[in-house]
Amino acid sequence: MGKTTLAVLLASALKRCDVKVSLSDRDPQGTASAAADSFGVELGEEGDVVVVDTAPWLDHEPTQAGIREADKVIVVTAPSPNDFHSTIRSIKRIGDIRGGREGVFCVFNFIRQTALSRDRENLVEDFGCPVIERFLRLRAAYPNAMMHGWKSLPRVAQDEVKDLAVAILSVQNKSKPTNQP
């Protein structure tokens, strides 16, 4: 599961938590826009919370604008050393775009019950931004939901996404100083 699936799921979960939310699709592929209706999520930039889906590259101007405008930037990564290297580079670049890393957070997806995933807290010292304590497990239900909507998710998956959405809303915009690597 990637950033678009997470964006659509978070917007849908927030709606179900009675948050006035909309989804802004700034990715040229338009996948979030295509899925929004089946999740009952409004497209646009109106609401108490606007979830912005961006292109997967950081040199895309609409992506950079979304990064600059956002109160919180969520970087999605898997608990894998290979992914950590690109995540560290992405977080650094996002900090450069924002003029600091305040409001930048990391979320893990694809969590399995492995020693690496249990030890993820010790693996993120170099990220230079806080990691949201909630995460999403590896479930086939998440990508399947992109075709069939929120109601196709099993209750345990719905609850997992809602827990993550609430955790993201409640996390404070504090981050390590920008002079950290």
Poorly predicted runs: 175-181
Which shape, going by the Cα principal axes?
globular
CATH superfamily placement = P-loop containing nucleotide triphosphate hydrolases
The largest sheet is: 3 strands, parallel
Average pLDDT number: 85
Structural class per helix/strand content? Answer: alpha/beta
Tally of distinct domains? 1
Strand order of the largest sheet: 2-1-3
Radius of gyration: 15 Å
Q: Count the DSSP helices.
A: 8
The CATH top-level class label: Alpha Beta
CATH topology category name: Rossmann fold
Ends distance:
28 Å
How much strand content do the residues show? 5-15%
Helix content: 40-55%
Short summary:
This protein has 181 residues and is an alpha/beta fold. It is built from 8 helices and 5 strands, in the order H-E-H-E-E-H-E-H-E-H-H-H-H.
